[in-house]
Amino acid sequence: MMISICWSSSWPRARRISRTRPARRKRLASWWAPPGFRYALNLPKDIQIVLGAAAPLGLTDETEDYGVFAYFSFESPLWKE
User: Fold this and answer.
1) Rg (CA), the chain
2) Domain spans of the chain?
3) What's the whole-model pTM score?
4) Which residues have a Cβ under 8 Å from the Cβ of 79 and sit 6 or more positions away?
5) Across the strands, what pairs with 40?
6) How many other β-carbons are positioned within 10 Å of the β-carbon of residue 1?
7) Is 74 exposed, middle or buried (0-12, 13-18, 19+ CB in 10 A)?
8) Residue 81: CA count within 13 A, CB half-sphere
9) pLDDT tens track, the chain, 81 positions
């Protein structure tokens, strides 16, 4: 099992309230904690394939509570020593 914490922040596009008064902007911050699993396959010739999946859980009101995170990694030596 694996767990990580993810953060994203952005300034949404501001709308003018009137011609004389500038618009106020509020920074949006999103936090996720996606628990999941990953599995590694060790193949001959030092090749490793890692597969994983996670379901992000939103920790703030602005964060959406649904999604899927898929992970794939292929590792092999570039040269032999």
Assistant:
1) 21
2) 1-11+27-81
3) 0.57
4) none
5) 50
6) 7
7) exposed
8) 2
9) 667 777 777 766 655 555 666 556 667 777 888 888 999 999 998 899 999 998 888 887 777 767 888 989 999 888 766
